[in-house]
UniProtKB/TrEMBL annotation:
SUPFAM superfamilies: Bacterial luciferase-like (SSF51679). It comes from Mycobacterium tuberculosis. InterPro entries: Luciferase-like_sf. One of its GO terms (molecular function) is oxidoreductase activity, acting on paired donors, with incorporation or reduction of molecular oxygen. This is Putative F420-dependent oxidoreductase, MSMEG_4141 family.
Length: 83
């Protein structure tokens, strides 16, 4: 996450997070609000929430334990109905 960047911290604070919550390592509440994590189905559901709320695109940054990005994206594609 981008805790060292004032523009991110300021935006999070405008969204109602406190100084403590936007300081490293970030509060559980902040992480839950800005990170989709878990199983591929759980991540897809979270991303679809943005689309249902009116977003016309939802950019993502995939983080994996083993740097196998292709495998992670392949797993995520099915519940997102991209295959």
């Amino acid at each position: 996450m981008y805790f060292n960047l004032a523009n991110y911290r300021n935006n999070w604070k405008r969204l109602g997070f406190t100084d403590d919550e936007v300081s490293r390592p970030g509060s559980d509440r902040l992480v839950d609000a800005v990170v989709a994590y878990g199983t591929p189905d759980a991540i897809a559901a979270r991303l679809n929430e943005h689309l249902l709320a009116g977003a016309d695109h939802v950019p993502i940054q995939v983080l994996t334990e083993d740097d196998n990005l292709v495998s992670a994206l392949t797993e995520l594609a099915k519940p997102l109905r991209l295959t």
